[in-house]
Design goal:
This protein is an alpha/beta fold. The protein has 2 domains: 4-169, Rossmann fold, CATH 3.40.50; 173-492, no CATH class. Helices cover 39% and strands 22% of the residues. It has 15 helices and 19 strands. The protein has helices at 17-36, 53-65, 86-91, 114-119, 122-135, 150-169, 191-198, 207-215, 219-232, 242-266, 287-294, 305-318, 432-442, 456-466, 479-492; strands at 4-10, 43-46, 69-76, 96-100, 141-144, 173-176, 201-204, 234-235, 270-272, 298-300, 327-336, 343-347, 357-365, 377-383, 386-395, 400-409, 424-428, 447-451, 469-473. The protein has a 6-stranded antiparallel beta barrel. A 5-stranded parallel β-sheet has the order 2-1-3-4-5, sandwiched between helices. A 4-stranded parallel β-sheet has the order 7-6-9-10, sandwiched between helices. The structure holds manganese (II) ion. Manganese (II) ion binds next to loops.
């Protein structure tokens, strides 16, 4: 879907035709500049200046009914009495942004008169309109600055991606071919409530329904994809017989092709597996799942459908970002507690998305320490450095909480030749100590949806739009305040 955003300028008819002509011309100019600037991921469409209850209500409902419209950007060029916005805003179901911009940048000290002030009174109009949005309790994004400033453009661009996440959330369909791992608590959750809150459809199949698809993949296709693996990745035989090695790799090629067709036929965008429920599959899907994630599918291991849906959601929100660094399913494994080198080694049994990889990607075939299948082939690599966010959606019984941790990804000091899985390594913000204590206090899971390409603010905005609590653990987090925030939130979100 090529989404568009509507630009709605608020005013009133008190100022006369001449002023309204200028308001419309200024709006058109801003929209033209924003669209021409290449900073925004989606096109902005200028709507008529809104000066009456009827046109506001009509425009908001047209936005609701246009599947291409992912959000409404409102700007008060002048003063727009806010009672006339009430009915339209009450009916609006698309993400809303209040752009606190002004056409004029500097006060023209020598020439300013009342006509100029009446025309350039965003500071006045913003407060009237903002008041009614606050009074009505409507979730919206507020972005302040001059319309030509890079920071306004960047923040608007990021909000647009959040808005697409809000609109697209209800299209996410997760396919489970394995249930939640026995006795694991944090990956459980209320699927009905998830559909009510987020719009997700979470269905279940017997894993052998998938096996039927895998078994039907033509041999020639398996051979061709295996050949592609061999041309794209570096095989690390580590003493294994090359022919036996290739047979193991080919099993993953067959699983990849069968699984993709299975997901396409069922219109699923995310998949959940379980190493203990593999039916007729010869190997736990490893390399296969890694490559499907790279193509935009969500994934969660051990039945973790919440994380699978979050990975899919974040893949959608980051789609098309120039120089994107990657988004993946991830799991917290082991700490490094050495002073100055603190961090958490991230990995999974197999399933880390190669979109986060840095440098060469290897294929290894190695035993799984769990389950009873043949040694699966998997992609092995290390991940990029730089800031990112790890996100965990948990079910607290009566409600959901989204926990978002800003992290700094680093290289580990030395290679880990005996570890046959892809890894990342990060130091949580504000520090390993506070980051981990905060995460555990908030109830965050070991599984996360991780990305380099979204901010904590974007995910917190998404959570707010879904009507759920979010906890951000970042450079400003202090444990005592976090503890209070969790207590206060428990009263607010019942
Ligand atoms: Mn796991």
């Amino acid at each position: 879907m090529s989404y568009k955003f509507w630009f709605c300028t608020g005013s009133q008819d008190l100022y006369g035709e001449e002023c309204l002509r200028k308001v419309a011309a200024n709006s058109a100019n801003i929209v033209e500049m924003l669209n021409g600037g290449k900073a925004l991921p989606f096109e902005i469409v200028l709507k008529q200046t809104l000066i009456s209850q009827e046109t506001i209500r009509k425009t908001m409902n047209e936005a609701n009914n246009d599947p291409e419209c992912a959000g409404v950007i409102t700007w008060m060029h002048t003063f727009s009495p806010a009672k006339m916005w009430i009915n339209g805003l009450r009916e609006l179901r698309k993400p809303l942004c209040h752009l606190l911009i002004q056409y004029n940048e500097e006060i023209p000290y020598d020439t300013i008169d009342m006509d100029f002030m009446n025309e350039n009174q965003s500071a006045h109009g913003d407060r009237e309109y903002g008041h009614i949005v606050s009074r009505m309790g409507i979730e919206r994004k507020i972005i302040f600055g001059h319309w030509s400033s890079l920071s306004v453009w960047e923040r608007l661009a990021r909000w647009m991606r959040t808005a697409v996440g809000i609109v697209e959330s209800s299209h996410i369909r997760v396919c489970r071919v394995g249930d939640n791992m026995n006795n694991v608590a944090v990956t459980e959750g209320d699927k009905v409530e998830a559909q009510i809150k987020f719009g997700w459809e979470v269905d279940h199949y017997c894993v052998n329904d998938l096996v039927d698809y895998v078994d039907r993949v033509p041999k020639g296709d398996v051979e061709a994809l295996t050949e592609e693996y061999y041309s794209k990745y570096t095989m690390l035989y580590e003493g294994r017989d090359p022919e036996e090695f290739r047979r193991h790799v080919a099993v993953q090629a067959q699983i990849e092709l069968g699984t993709e067709k299975f997901l396409r036929d069922g219109n699923y965008h995310a998949i959940v597996t379980h190493f203990g429920m593999l039916g007729g599959l010869k190997q736990l899907p490893g390399l296969a799942i890694q490559r499907l994630m790279e193509r935009g599918y969500g994934f969660g291991a051990e039945g973790d459908w919440k994380t699978a849906a979050m990975v899919r959601l974040m893949k959608i929100m980051t789609k098309g970002i120039p120089d994107a660094k990657g988004t993946s399913f991830m799991e917290d494994y082991t700490y490094n507690l050495v002073a100055g080198k603190e961090g958490i080694l991230q990995s999974h049994m197999l399933e880390v998305c190669p979109s986060v990889s840095d440098g060469e990607i290897f294929v290894k075939v190695a035993p799984l320490s769990m389950g009873n299948r043949e040694d699966p082939a998997r992609l092995v690599f290390t991940s990029k450095t730089g800031p990112g966010i790890a996100v965990s959606l948990i079910d607290l019984g009566s409600r959901f909480r989204l926990i978002i941790n800003s992290v700094e990804c680093k290289k580990v000091e030395k290679p880990m030749p005996k570890l046959p899985v892809a890894t990342a390594f990060w130091t949580p913000k504000p520090s390993l100590e506070v980051g981990v204590e905060g995460w555990i206090m908030a109830g965050g899971a070991h599984h996360t949806a991780f990305t380099y390409d979204l901010s904590a603010e974007q995910m917190a905005d998404w959570a707010a739009a879904m009507g759920i609590e979010s906890i951000v653990i970042d450079e400003n987090t202090r444990i005592r305040e976090l503890k209070n925030e969790l207590k206060w939130n428990s009263v607010l979100y019942r």
